[in-house]
């Protein structure tokens, strides 16, 4: 697609996530909304670029809090879509080297396990990974949760601007092959940069499809 055509298509298709708003944060299942509608969860290691990806998705600068402090997101954070009832993007707690107490990490793990096992409204999972450090153990665990539940998953290889085009393309191909070998057809993958906006439209298309927007 040529640049002019891409610009015209972008102008003709307004961002369905623009105007998204913070609704609430849930620390346990009793604080979750009624189990109806559509939800897409975002997961990722601490500092993988999850908050920046959410902000780029929704075309806002500070919808999700961006921090250099690992483990800043400590609850399930719900964002509502503009003029769409029961359409949510859910920011899950960052995992990996989060500097939080062990008992809180255990609580998160139990809560998220329950969320993935029982939440009917959950329609898809985006797993955010730094393109320079993809497919760590926790990433694979989250993708395994989606596979076991029969949910589609999408891998977002963030900070693609940190690599050259050739290196980024090679990483994308290697990750795609590994995902195919391990998880089959249920997982898609793309390069992404919140800084350069590379891949933002592709991400919006995936999440909008899952949310029925």
Written account of the structure:
- This protein is of the alpha/beta class and 213 residues long.
- The chain has one domain (19-211): 3-Layer(aba) Sandwich (Rossmann fold), CATH 3.40.50.300.
- Helices cover 37% and strands 20% of the residues.
- It has a 7-stranded mixed sheet with strand order 1-3-4-2-5-6-7, with helices on both faces.
- A hairpin with a 6-residue loop joins strand 3 and strand 4 (87-91).
Structural class: alpha/beta
CATH topology: Rossmann fold
Poorly predicted runs: 1-12, 67-72
If classified by CATH, what would the architecture be?
A: 3-Layer(aba) Sandwich
Q: Evaluate the radius of gyration.
A: 16 Å
Please give the largest β-sheet. 7 strands, mixed
**The CATH C-level class name:** Alpha Beta
Number of helices: 6
What is the name of the CATH superfamily?
P-loop containing nucleotide triphosphate hydrolases
Beta-strand share of residues: 15-25%
Question: Strand order within the widest sheet?
Answer: 1-3-4-2-5-6-7
- The termini sit apart by 24 Å
The amount of helix comes to 25-40%
For the secondary structure, the number of strands is 7
Q: What best-fitting shape do the alpha-carbon axes yield?
A: globular
Overall pLDDT level: 88
**What is the count of structural domains?**
1
Oligomer: single chain
- Which H/E pattern describes the elements? HEEHEEHEHEHEH
């Amino acid at each position: 697609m040529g640049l002019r055509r891409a610009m015209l298509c972008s102008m003709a298709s307004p961002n369905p996530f623009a105007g998204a708003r913070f609704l609430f944060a849930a620390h346990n299942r009793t604080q979750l909304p009624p189990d109806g509608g559509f939800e897409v969860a975002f997961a990722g290691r601490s500092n993988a670029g999850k908050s920046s990806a959410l902000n780029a998705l929704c075309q806002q600068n500070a919808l999700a809090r961006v921090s250099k402090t690992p483990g800043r997101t400590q609850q399930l954070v719900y964002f509502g879509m503009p003029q769409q009832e029961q359409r949510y993007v859910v920011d899950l707690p960052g995992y990996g080297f989060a500097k939080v107490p062990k008992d809180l990490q255990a609580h998160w793990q139990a809560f998220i396990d329950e969320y993935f096992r029982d939440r009917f409204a959950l329609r898809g999972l985006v797993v955010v990974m730094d393109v320079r450090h993809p497919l760590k153990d926790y990433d694979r665990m989250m993708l395994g949760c989606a596979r076991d539940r029969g949910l589609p998953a999408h891998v977002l290889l963030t900070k693609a601007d940190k690599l050259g085009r050739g290196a980024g393309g090679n990483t994308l191909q290697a990750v795609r092959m590994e995902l195919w070998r391990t998880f089959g057809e249920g997982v898609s993958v793309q390069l992404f940069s919140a800084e350069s906006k590379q891949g933002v439209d592709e991400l919006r298309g995936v999440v909008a499809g899952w949310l029925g927007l």
